Amino acid sequence: MRQKIAILGSTGSIGKNLLEIINKDKKNYEVVLLSANKNHKDLLKQAKKFNVKNIIIKNTESFKILKKKNYKINIYNNFSILNKIFKKKIDYVMCAISGIEGLIPTLDIIKFTKKIAIANKESIICAWNLINKQMINSKTEFVPVDSEHFSIWYALKNTNVKNIERIYLTASGGPLLKSSKSILKNIKISHALNHPTWIMGKKISIDSCTMMNKVFEVIEAKHLFDVSYKKISILTHPNSYIHAIIKFKNGLIKIIAHDTTMKIPIFNTINLNEKKTIKTDKLNLKKLNSPQLKQVDYKIFPLVGILKILPNKISLFETVIVTTNDLLVDLFLSKKIKYYQLQNLLLKIIKMKIFTKYKNIKPKKIQDIIFVKNYVSTIITEILKKQNA
Question: Are residue 97 and residue 233 in the same domain, yes or no?
Answer without folding.
Answer: no
